[in-house]
Design goal:
The complex is a heterodimer.
Chain A lengths: L1 H9 L1 H17 L3 H26 L8 H18 L3 H23 L4 H21 L5 E2 L16 H23 L2 H11 L1 H6 L4 H28 L1 E2 L1 H5 L1 H14 L5 H21 L6 H16 L4 H8 L31 E12 L2 E12 L3 E5 L6 H8 L7 E6 L2 E2 L5 H7 L1 E3 L12 H9 L6 H15 L14 H14 L4 E5 L7 H16 L3 E5 L3 H7 L2 E6 L2 E6 L1 H6 L1 H8 L1 H8 L4
Parallel strand pairs in A: 5-10, 5-11, 8-9, 9-10
Antiparallel strand pairs in A: 1-2, 3-4, 3-6, 6-7, 11-12
Chain B lengths: L2 H32 L6 H19 L3 H7 L1 H14 L10 H27 L14 E4 L2 E4 H23 L1 H11 L1 H6 L4 H23 L9 H16 L4 H21 L5 H15 L13
Antiparallel strand pairs in B: 1-2
The chains are: A alpha/beta, B mainly alpha.
C-alpha cells in the first residue's frame, strides 16, 4: 500500500504551492492596502475551510459558525485587556473555549437534522452577541503595548499579519487534507449522503459529527483572534458575532465550492479582492456596493454554476485512473478478521426473547422469540406487514423494542446504537438499497471496512477484497447511480461483509433480480455462510427460500406462527392455509418427500 | 409589580405579536408550499415599509391604507422573482443540494436588496408621522398605543383573509394540496409550479403588508430586515415549520415573550428570552408547538 501513502503525500504538494504563493505575494506587494486585502483573503479562506468541515464534509449546514470566530476573538482580547496575557497564549485559551462551546452546542443541537439543525445554529451567535453587549463589552480596544509589540501580536510591518493569517490558512488546509483522506472524512461523507446507512455500516454518526464540529470550531477561533489583531483593533459584538461574518464565510464557500478544501480558498481569492477593491474605489460614493457585488455573485453562481467554481473546473479535468492494486486476497475479509471466532455450528449466536414493538397501538411485533445458530441460514417469511423489516430494525438497533430482549453472543444488545451493534459483528442490508450516491463503489464499501481498519490503506485493501468476494472488482470506480439492481445489492452486501460480521441480516436481497441474478445471489449467500458467517434472510421468493435456508421462521401480524426446517414449515397445513394460500397447498403436495 | 403592569406587558406583547404573526405567515406559507427557507423575506418587508413611506409622504396615503394598497404590486414582484429565480432551485433533485442552492439564492437576493436600498436611499432612518402614533386608548389600567392597535387589527384582518382563501376557495385548496403532496397534486391536474409562484407571491405580499403596518410605529432603514428575519424564523419554527396557523400563533408568542422578558431581564436582554424559547422548542418539540412533523398548511 505504498501507492496510497505516496498519493496522500502528493496531495500535500498543492498545499505547499498555495502557501508558497502566499509568501511570494506577501513579499512582492508594496502598498499597505494591498497587504490588508491579502490578510483578508487568508482570513476568509481559513474561516471558509473551518465552516466547510462541518457543513461541507459532514453536510450539517451551520448558520452560526461566527459563534466560534467571536469566541476566539473575545477570549484572546479580553485576556490581553484583563490580565495582559500574550495573545499567543490567549489564542490557545480562545481555541479551547471555542471547542468547549462546540461540545456544549453540539450535544443538544445534533439531535436535530437538516433544516432544523441549520435554524437552531442561528440562535447561538445572536445570544452571544446580546450577552456581550449586556456585559459591557460593546467596544473592547486592544491596548497598545509599545515595549514588547511582538509578544502582543502588534506589528508595524503589515507583512507580519499576512504571514500570521497564512500560517493559519496552511494549518487549516493540512487539517482539511487529513480529514479528506481519513476514516473520519469517509464517515462524514457517508453520513451526509445517508445517515441511516452510515449507522448500519458501523459509523458512529453522532461522534463523527461532534468530532467534525470541534475540529471546525478550532480554526474558526484561531482566525477570529488573528482577525481581531490584524484588522479590527477594536472588537465589537457586531464585528465578530454579526451576520456579516457568516455571510462572508458562506460567500467564499458557496462561490468556491462546498465539500472540498480548495473551494473556500478559490472563493476567497476571487471574492475578497473584488469586493475590497470596489469598496476602496467607489465605496465612499456608493456605500453598500460590496453587498450588492456579493449578492450578485451568489445569484449568478446559482444560475450558472450552482456547484461552485472548484467543482465546475474539476468537471473539465480528464478523469484520473485510480491506482487499484490488481491482486488481493478475497478470503481474508470474512469472519474472524475482527478477532472473534465464528463459533461451532449449532451454538446459539443471536437469541431473540419475547420481543414486542407497537406503533401507535398497532402491534408490529408481538412476543417474538427465536434463535439464530452459528453458521446457519435462517429465513424469515410472512405476508406483507407481518413485521419482518420491523424485526430487522429491532435486531440492528434502529428501533428499540417495547418489551423483550435481544442477546448476541450471550450479551444483551437491545438499546445499543446501530453502529455499536455493527461493531459487535451484526451487519445488515436494506430492502431498498441504501447507497452513498456521491461516493464510488469502492468508497461505499470503504465506509464499512473502516469498522475494523482505522488506517486508509488497510481499509482500502479490505474493501477491495470484499468487492472481489462479491465479484464487483471491475466496478470499483463507478458511482452507484450507474449500477444495475444486482450490482447495487452486491455492493451493499460487500459493504456489510467489509465490516467483518459474524451475522448478516439480509432484507429481501433477491427482490427485483432476474432469474440469473437470483441464482448468483443465492450462491453468494451460501459462500458467505460457508465462510463462517451466519445469515438471516427476509425473502418473498418462495422457491429460493426453500432451497437456500437451513431453517425458517414464519411471522404473521407480528407473531411467530411457525419455526423449523423449511420442508416441515411449508408443509405445515396451518402455515400453507393461512399464510401461503391454497395454491401452495396443492403445489407442496406434489413435491417429493 | 401589580396586576395592571402584568396586563400592560401582556397586551403590549400581543399587539406587537399581531404584526409579527402577519409577517411570519408569509414565511410559513412559502416554506409550507415550496420547502424554501427564504432569507430575503425580511428585505421584502423592508421594501414594503419604504413603499408605504413614500405613499404616505408623497401622496398622503395613510400607512394603514398604504399597507393594503401595496399588496398587489408586491404580489406581482413575488411572482416575477419566483419565475426568474426560484424556479431554478425548486422541484426535483437531491434535497441537500436544493437546500444549499436555495440558501445561496435567497441570501444573495437579501444582500442585493439591502445594499442596493442603502445605495439608492442612504442608510438614514426615516419615519412616518401620523396623528395616532403617539396617542393611546385607555382601557381600564391598560394603555393601548393607537398605532399598534390599528396595526394589530389590520394584521388580524389580513391573516383572516388568507385563512379564508386557503380553506374556502378552490385555488386555496389546490395550493394546500400542492403543499401536502406535490406529486399527487400533479396527477390531479394541479400545476405545482404555478402554485409555488402563487405561494411566493402571496408570501411576499403579506410580509410587505406587515412591513407597511410596522412602519406606523417603527423606524424605516435599509438594514431593518436583519432584526426581523430572525424573529420570523423563530415564529415559524416555534409554531411548526409549514403550518400557517402555527406561524400565526408563533408570531403572537414572540411578541408576548419579548414583552414578558422585560419583567425579569433588563431591556438589552429582551431577545435572549426569545432565542432561548426558540432553542427549547427545537430541543423538546422540533415539529413545533402546533405543527405535525413537516406537514404543510
Amino acid at each position: 500500500m505504498v501507492g496510497a501513502r505516496a498519493s496522500r503525500l502528493a496531495g500535500l504538494v498543492p498545499i505547499g504551492l498555495v502557501v508558497l504563493l502566499g509568501l511570494v505575494l506577501t513579499l512582492v506587494l508594496g502598498e499597505r492596502h494591498h497587504h490588508r486585502i491579502l490578510t483578508l483573503v487568508f482570513v476568509w479562506a481559513t474561516m471558509g475551510l473551518a465552516w466547510n468541515i462541518i457543513s461541507g464534509y459532514a453536510g450539517q449546514t451551520s448558520f452560526g459558525h461566527q459563534a466560534f470566530f467571536g469566541i476566539g476573538a473575545y477570549v484572546t482580547v479580553l485576556l490581553v485587556v484583563g490580565v495582559r496575557l500574550t495573545p499567543w497564549l490567549g489564542l490557545i485559551a480562545g481555541t479551547l473555549a471555542a471547542v468547549v462551546a462546540a461540545v456544549l452546542i453540539g450535544f443538544p443541537t445534533f439531535r436535530l437534522a437538516g433544516i432544523y439543525f441549520a435554524l437552531a445554529t442561528l440562535a447561538y451567535p445572536l445570544i452571544l452577541r446580546i450577552v456581550m453587549d449586556f456585559l459591557g463589552y460593546q467596544e473592547v480596544a486592544i491596548p497598545m503595548v509599545r515595549d514588547r509589540p511582538t509578544l502582543f501580536m502588534q506589528f508595524k510591518d503589515p507583512r507580519a499579519y499576512d504571514v500570521l493569517a497564512l500560517a493559519a490558512l496552511g494549518g487549516t488546509l493540512l487539517l482539511s487534507h487529513w480529514i479528506e483522506g481519513s476514516r473520519l472524512g469517509y464517515a462524514l461523507r457517508a453520513l451526509k449522503e445517508n445517515e441511516a446507512a452510515a449507522e448500519a455500516a458501523g459509523v458512529d454518526t453522532f461522534r463523527a459529527k461532534m468530532t467534525a464540529y470541534m475540529l471546525s470550531a478550532a480554526p474558526a477561533a484561531v482566525i477570529g483572534a488573528i482577525y481581531a489583531h490584524a484588522i479590527l483593533f477594536v472588537v465589537t459584538p457586531d464585528a465578530v458575532f454579526g451576520t456579516l461574518v457568516i455571510v462572508q464565510t458562506l460567500v467564499v464557500c458557496l462561490v468556491g465550492g462546498v465539500g472540498s478544501k480548495w473551494g473556500p480558498v478559490l472563493g476567497a481569492a476571487i471574492m475578497v479582492p473584488m469586493s475590497e477593491i470596489l469598496d476602496a474605489t467607489v465605496g465612499d460614493r456608493l456605500p453598500g456596493i460590496q453587498g450588492v457585488v456579493y449578492g450578485s455573485a451568489l445569484v449568478l453562481m446559482i444560475l450558472f454554476a450552482p456547484e461552485g467554481i472548484y467543482w465546475r473546473l474539476r468537471a473539465f479535468r480528464p478523469s484520473r485512473a485510480v491506482d487499484t492494486p490488481t491482486e488481493s486476497a478475497p478470503a481474508a475479509i470474512m469472519a474472524g478478521a475482527a478477532g472473534r471466532s465464528p463459533g461451532a455450528p449449532g451454538t446459539a449466536l443471536l437469541d431473540v426473547r419475547g420481543v414486542s414493538k407497537a406503533f401507535l397501538g398497532l402491534h408490529a411485533l408481538e412476543d417474538v422469540s427465536f434463535t439464530v445458530h452459528a453458521r446457519e441460514i435462517l429465513g424469515v417469511i410472512g405476508p406483507n406487514g407481518a413485521g419482518k423489516t420491523t424485526l430487522f430494525n429491532v435486531l440492528n438497533g434502529f428501533l428499540s423494542p417495547d418489551a423483550g430482549e435481544v442477546r448476541y453472543r450471550d450479551e444483551p444488545i437491545t438499546g445499543l446504537r446501530p453502529n455499536a451493534i455493527c461493531r459487535r459483528g451484526v451487519a445488515r442490508t436494506f430492502q431498498v438499497v441504501r447507497t452513498f450516491p456521491q461516493l464510488t463503489v469502492l468508497e461505499n464499501v470503504l465506509v464499512g471496512a473502516f469498522v475494523h481498519e482505522p488506517a486508509l490503506a488497510a481499509a482500502r485493501a479490505r474493501a477491495l477484497a470484499a468487492l472481489a468476494a462479491v465479484g464487483l472488482r471491475s466496478r470499483v470506480d463507478a458511482l452507484p447511480g450507474g449500477l444495475t439492481t444486482l450490482d447495487l445489492r452486491l455492493m451493499e452486501l460487500a459493504r456489510a461483509l467489509a465490516t467483518g460480521p459474524d451475522l448478516i441480516l439480509l432484507d429481501e436481497p433477491l427482490a427485483g433480480l432476474s432469474r440469473d441474478g437470483v441464482d448468483a445471489m443465492m450462491a453468494l449467500v451460501r459462500r458467505v455462510r460457508d465462510a463462517g458467517v451466519s445469515v438471516v434472510i427476509i425473502e418473498h421468493t418462495m422457491y429460493a427460500v426453500v432451497q437456500l435456508v437451513d431453517r425458517l421462521v414464519v411471522l404473521d401480524h407480528g407473531r411467530r406462527v411457525a419455526e423449523g426446517a423449511p420442508n416441515d414449515v411449508v408443509r405445515d397445513p396451518a402455515v400453507i392455509e393461512a399464510y401461503l394460500g391454497n395454491k401452495w397447498l396443492g403445489r407442496v403436495a406434489g413435491l417429493p418427500t | 409589580m401589580s396586576v395592571g403592569d402584568l396586563l400592560q406587558y401582556l397586551v403590549t406583547g400581543l399587539l406587537v405579536g399581531g404584526v409579527y404573526a402577519l409577517m411570519s405567515i408569509g414565511l410559513g406559507l412559502i416554506f409550507g408550499v415550496m420547502r424554501v427557507v427564504n432569507f430575503a423575506q425580511g428585505d421584502f418587508m423592508m421594501l414594503g415599509m419604504y413603499l408605504t413611506y413614500f405613499l404616505a409622504t408623497g401622496y398622503g396615503v395613510d400607512p394603514l391604507l398604504g399597507a393594503v394598497v401595496i399588496i398587489p404590486p408586491f404580489f406581482l414582484l413575488g411572482l416575477g422573482v419566483h419565475r426568474a429565480l426560484l424556479v431554478r432551485v425548486t422541484g426535483g433533485g437531491d434535497p441537500q443540494r436544493l437546500m444549499d442552492a436555495q440558501l445561496i439564492l435567497t441570501l444573495g437576493l437579501s444582500l442585493i436588496i439591502t445594499n442596493a436600498t442603502t445605495m439608492l436611499l442612504t442608510p438614514m432612518p426615516r419615519g412616518i408621522k401620523t396623528a395616532y402614533a403617539t396617542q393611546a386608548f385607555v382601557v381600564g389600567p391598560v394603555l393601548l398605543n393607537q398605532a399598534r392597535s390599528y396595526a394589530f387589527l389590520m394584521a388580524l384582518l389580513l391573516a383572516g383573509a388568507v385563512y379564508l382563501f386557503l380553506t374556502r376557495t378552490d385555488l386555496g385548496k389546490a395550493l394546500r394540496a400542492a403543499a401536502d403532496e406535490p406529486e399527487a397534486a400533479g396527477y390531479q391536474g394541479i400545476d405545482v409550479r404555478a402554485m409555488h409562484g402563487l405561494a411566493f407571491g402571496i408570501g411576499i405580499a403579506l410580509v410587505a403588508a406587515a412591513g407597511g403596518l410596522l412602519a406606523t410605529y417603527h423606524p424605516i432603514e435599509p438594514t431593518v430586515a436583519v432584526n426581523f428575519i430572525v424573529l420570523m424564523f423563530v415564529a415559524v419554527v416555534v409554531g411548526g415549520l409549514g403550518s400557517i396557523p402555527g406561524a400565526f400563533a408563533g408570531g403572537l408568542m414572540i411578541g408576548l415573550v419579548q414583552s414578558l422578558t422585560l419583567l425579569v431581564l433588563p431591556f438589552q436582554l429582551q431577545n435572549v428570552g426569545v432565542f432561548i424559547a426558540f432553542l427549547l422548542v427545537l430541543y423538546l418539540r422540533p415539529q413545533g408547538l402546533f405543527g405535525q412533523r413537516l406537514r404543510a398548511v
